Amino acid sequence: MPTFFVPSEAVAPPTIRITGHLLHHLRESLRLHTGEALTVTDDRGIRYRTEIVEVTAKQLVSRILETTTPPAKTGPSLVLAQALLKGEKMDWVIQKATELGVDRIIPVYAARSVVKLRADRTEHQLARWQRIALEAAQQSERWSVPKIEEPSTLSQLATGDRGSFKIILAERSNGASLQTISLPAGRHDTILPLIGAEGGWSEDELRVAQDHGYTAITLGSRILRSETAAIAAISILQSRLGGLG
User: Fold this and answer.
1) How far apart are CA 58 and CA 20, in angstroms?
2) Global pTM?
3) CB under 8 Å to 21, separation ≥6 — which residues?
């Protein structure tokens, strides 16, 4: 069974009390009962192996059997900057990038993005994406849930995240190979891959990114869909950093 995330205030050793939406999910969807095992992780990254001792309409109470702290961080953080994609494609990228271990996801407004978020819908959409990340983090037994940040323009992104190792995927370019480019390896470093929209980056966008320190890279001769390129890039980076395989 996956781990489930709870706020730290729900933890009061020797028990954990769960209410709200998670209670409804555990009680009504998973139909958990007393005596069953339940693994939860709090917002400090501490994981608890527990046994359910009470389930009511108001709360689920579990008894802590074992406490585990998160493994020490040894490599760089991964931040995915993804141009907005239409429909379920953006949902899919967020889900899979979460499973693959990214620490943050930044939606980016791009010239060729088909979808344009309405200002009055941004908060709702961010909350929806954050739920997708939460569910993916639980399923993949992560120690934390990646933060979905406010959508950013390319100019805002290019001038931010100072100190990051910044790369931009550019199809049909003579960019460096993601397999061979030198990567930072310190735990205080950040690697930020920037992935374009369905129609790729415009020449102006590529110039702005490169003027602000982004290195153009390629995934080879194949032209991949944006959502495929995002997951391929994260997979290659995680493999090289020791997070996969």
Assistant:
1) 8
2) 0.92
3) none
